[in-house]
Amino acid sequence: MSDAPWYEAGLSFACTRCGNCCTGQPGEVRVSEAEAEALAAHLGVDLADFHERFTRHTPDGATSLTEKANFDCVFWSARDGCTVYALRPRQCRTWPFWRRNLASPTHWAEAARGCPGLGRGALHPAETIAELAADDGTSGIVPGAPG
Ligand code: SF4
Ligand code: SF4
Question: 126: which of 8, 32, 46, 48 lies 20 to 30 Å off by Cα?
């Protein structure tokens, strides 16, 4: 049996900047301490203040960016998009090549329902995809997989 992933031929993705993944629904945007330090410095606040204003703990003890009351990411602007784009967390940079989306073609198709960038634009090679997925910045939990 081949060890090649189901996406051996690569996957197409090009972001349309629609903002769906940054807005409108609850979710975790995990941020490492190094990323938090960089964001705090960029915003001109100390690290404790940054965490107080912009992050929360996840149930498993990690750190996530917070959301606004409408579930938009705390750093999303309707006018400007992501206001910390150059310093956005790794989880944001590696989308859609997350372990949970790559678990099967069905998981990929599910991700495509909320992201119009999947299936369009440049073909990303399987090797690049696998490298991104191995350190995707997420919890790595795959919905529907046995615990
Ligand atoms: S949902 Fe997809 S296409 Fe829209 S901004 Fe997010 S990554 Fe880009
Ligand atoms: S940090 Fe930026 S890219 Fe990441 S979810 Fe928030 S607004 Fe979107």
Answer: 32
Mean of the pLDDT values across residues 1-8? 87
| DSSP, residue by residue, 97-118 | --HHHHS-HHHHHHHHTT-TTE
Handedness of CA 61, 66, 67, 68 (dihedral sign): positive
Q: 141 vs 135, which has greater pLDDT? A: 135
Q: Give the pLDDT confidence score for residue 3 in this predicted structure.
A: 84
Q: Determine the residue of 12, 13, 20, 77 to mutate for testing ligand 1's pocket, defined as the one with the most ligand atoms within 8 A of the Cβ atom.
A: 20
Predicted confidence band at 147 (pLDDT cuts at 50, 70, 90)? very low
